Amino acid sequence: MINPSVEQLTQGYKINRYKLAMATAKCARMVTDEYVAQREKAEKMIERKETDKSLASLIKGEVRDRKAVETAVQRLYKGEFVILDDELNK
Predict the structure, then answer these.
(1) What pLDDT does 90 receive?
(2) How many CA atoms lie within 13 A of 36 on its CB side?
(3) Residue ranges covered by each domain of the chain
(4) Rounded to an integer, what distance in angstroms lies between the CA atom of residue 78 and that of residue 89?
(5) Best CA proximity match to 31, nearest among 82, 79, 59, 67
(6) What pLDDT score does 19 carry?
(7) How many helices (H) and strands (E) does the chain have?
(8) Are 41 and 32 in contact (CB under 8 A)?
(9) Residue 89: which pLDDT band, with cuts at 50, 70 and 90?
């Protein structure tokens, strides 16, 4: 189970579980895209012999070592990503 809980993620907001799931999925997709971009950049650097570091050391540990959903939930909890709701903006 991923921490924090649903209640902790929605604390102070009137967001249902569906909106939370959709926001988490979108955020996880962004994390995956970030990983892919970092990996491609690292592979090109290694191919051109611009570095002698390993592929793993050139990719941020946050996106390399954890699952995308786990990283997304943590970013939502920390406020790095915000769930926008039309009703909240009124």
Answers:
(1) 39
(2) 7
(3) 6-78
(4) 20
(5) 67
(6) 86
(7) 4, 0
(8) no
(9) very low
Average pLDDT value for the chain: 86
- Overall residue count recorded for the chain in this entry: 90
Place of tokens 């979108």: 26
- Taking the C-alpha atoms of residue 60 and residue 69, their distance in angstroms, rounded to an integer, is 16
On whether the CB atoms of residues 83 and 23 are closer than 8 A, the answer is: yes
| Confidence (pLDDT) at 45 | 93
Question: How far is the C-alpha of 46 from the C-alpha of 9, rounded, in Å?
Answer: 40
Q: Residues with Cβ < 8 Å from 66, sequence gap 6 or more?
A: none
How much is the average pLDDT of 59-87?
86
Q: Is the pLDDT of residue 86 over 60?
A: no
Residue 30 predicted with pLDDT over 50? yes
